């Protein structure tokens, strides 16, 4: 790469009706230091005070340039394109108005791009749940720290990173290949942009630094586009974006095109299926739309997908309408996947989805024990401090591995070190369909561990379970709570006086806990309930 300008970065910030947050985003870009020669904020005809906030910042920060659009574009692509057009630095970086760049992000990316003469540099991104501040890495394990990808087709799995914001781009590269975002009201525009980038076969440099913090505010009055799934139009938009991206990639590289189709089956399809909801009209529309799109997938893409995704695709193709056991399918699409009983067999004793939909579960016999979609149920045990655990066999596969013990693991939902309980021996169930045991449910011990870790007020914990087999293999999953377990309880505690405990079922069907130790915890428990109730009314 050659440039007559010294290496520098233009950060493009797009904003629409985000007066309360855009200042933090712009400030995080300006705080990158002199490596950022300019921050270009594009106001997409906001109707709130966004324009005034940006103009006020520009009055005191010479590096901030504000572009005011007179008409709202309806999407994110057009304002980003406006930002590229206004940029004067050799490199460009994108930032959304409700997110932030961590310190040093631009410098780390620029250094890698220059050192390796790479038109694209990429770094780590986290999804930060607010207000909990729980960070989840984006596409963990996809990139190898310090590597340089000379040809994207050699690493087709890179299509799984559809974000445009955790990457630095050479502006001359974008111009040379005519790479821009789709204009107008095009949802998931980053799918198409990243596909165009990969199709142009750039060298890609990877840095280990955290370069982007993606804020997730699920209870916000106006949620982000990717979280706004209240009607089927969001899924339709995602399908159209994927269809366009897959075509672009397939035309450039058969390997990239296939990887893009497989990614849809393994990731997008399962994510929306597990969040399908209970509205019959939405379910019917989603089912018809999905089957229509899957009909265009060749068998090579289906065969290349993992066993769980293959089975889902074939069940969807086999049923004209949502089946009676749709809830079972949504639980199977969850993380971790659980295939609930009953377990039907077809000709020759082959495992099938159900008697009504005898779709063969091909490849089940080849899955290692640790990857089996086993179902473990948790019910009320003897007294308030016990659980009755039941591990269901799965077409004889668990019996082959020989389950020996189970162990509970309590994971803070706000992030942090898990709390492990002791292993407990399993015994065969009386009906021969699995194994059972009684395990302690140490609620006061979990609450005390949370306090030692600095958690005050209400605590939220996920409950996971390890099933250990005869050869030492461990299957890690999450127990499915039975209804009788989901009752609030008040426990006397010498440390707190009283401990309020509420076991509940997550959206994915797993067991979780809310613990409120003492008066302060009880107060935060009540506040949390009111907050969730208001959020539910707003969503409705």
Automatic annotation (TrEMBL):
<keyword id="KW-0808">Transferase</keyword>
<dbReference type="InterPro" id="IPR001173">
    <property type="entry name" value="Glyco_trans_2-like"/>
</dbReference>
<dbReference type="InterPro" id="IPR029044">
    <property type="entry name" value="Nucleotide-diphossugar_trans"/>
</dbReference>
<dbReference type="GO" id="GO:0016758">
    <property type="term" value="F:hexosyltransferase activity"/>
</dbReference>
<feature type="domain" description="Glycosyltransferase 2-like">
    <location>
        <begin position="10"/>
        <end position="137"/>
    </location>
</feature>
<dbReference type="Pfam" id="PF00535">
    <property type="entry name" value="Glycos_transf_2"/>
</dbReference>
<protein>
    <submittedName>
        <fullName>Glycosyltransferase family 2 protein</fullName>
    </submittedName>
</protein>
């Amino acid at each position: 790469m050659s440039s007559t300008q010294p290496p520098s970065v233009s950060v493009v910030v797009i904003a629409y009706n985000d007066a309360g947050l855009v200042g933090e985003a712009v400030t995080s870009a300006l705080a990158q230091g002199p490596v950022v020669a300019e921050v270009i904020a594009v106001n997409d005809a906001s109707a709130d005070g966004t324009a005034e906030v940006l103009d006020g910042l520009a009055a005191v920060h010479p590096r901030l340039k504000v572009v005011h659009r007179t008409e709202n574009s309806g999407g994110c692509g057009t304002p980003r394109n406006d930002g590229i057009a206004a940029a004067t630095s050799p490199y460009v970086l994108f930032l959304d108005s409700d997110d932030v760049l961590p310190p040093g992000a631009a410098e780390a990316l620029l250094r890698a791009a220059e050192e390796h003469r790479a038109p694209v540099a990429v770094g780590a991104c986290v999804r930060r749940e607010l207000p909990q501040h729980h960070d989840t890495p984006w596409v963990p394990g996809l990139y190898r720290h310090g590597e340089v990808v000379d040809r994207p087709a050699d690493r087709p799995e890179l299509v799984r990173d559809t974000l445009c914001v955790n990457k630095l781009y050479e502006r001359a590269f974008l111009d040379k290949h005519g790479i821009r975002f789709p204009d107008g009201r095009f949802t998931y525009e980053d799918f198409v942009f990243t596909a165009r980038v990969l199709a142009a076969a750039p060298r890609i440099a990877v840095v280990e630094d955290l370069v982007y913090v993606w804020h997730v505010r699920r209870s916000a009055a106006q949620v982000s586009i990717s979280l706004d799934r209240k009607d089927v139009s969001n899924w339709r938009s995602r399908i159209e974006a994927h269809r366009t991206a897959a075509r672009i990639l397939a035309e450039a590289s058969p390997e990239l095109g296939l990887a893009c189709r497989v990614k849809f089956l393994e990731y997008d399809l399962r994510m929306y299926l597990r969040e399908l909801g209970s509205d019959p009209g939405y379910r019917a529309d989603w089912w018809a739309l999905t089957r229509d799109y899957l009909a265009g997938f060749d068998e090579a893409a289906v065969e290349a997908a993992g066993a769980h995704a293959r089975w889902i695709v074939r069940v969807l193709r086999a049923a004209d309408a949502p089946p009676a056991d749709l809830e079972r399918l949504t639980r199977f699409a969850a993380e971790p996947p659980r295939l609930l009983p009953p377990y039907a067999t077809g000709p020759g004793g082959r495992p099938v989805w159900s008697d009504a939909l005898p779709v063969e579960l091909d490849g089940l016999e080849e899955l290692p024990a640790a990857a089996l979609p086993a179902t473990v149920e948790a019910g009320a045990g003897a007294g308030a401090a016990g659980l009755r655990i039941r591990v269901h066999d799965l077409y004889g596969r668990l019996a082959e591995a020989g389950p020996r013990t189970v162990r509970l693991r309590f994971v803070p939902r706000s992030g942090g070190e898990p709390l492990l309980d002791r292993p407990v021996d399993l015994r065969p169930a009386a009906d021969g369909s699995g194994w059972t045991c009684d395990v302690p449910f140490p609620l006061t011990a979990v609450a005390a561990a949370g306090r030692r870790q600095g958690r005050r007020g209400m605590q939220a914990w996920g409950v996971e379970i390890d099933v250990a087999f005869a050869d030492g293999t461990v299957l890690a999953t999450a127990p499915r709570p039975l209804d009788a377990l989901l009752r609030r309880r008040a426990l006397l505690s010498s440390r707190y006086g009283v401990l309020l405990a509420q076991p509940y079922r997550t959206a994915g069907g797993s067991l979780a806990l809310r613990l409120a130790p003492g008066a302060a915890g009880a107060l935060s428990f009540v506040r949390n309930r009111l907050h969730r109730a208001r959020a539910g009314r707003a969503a409705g």
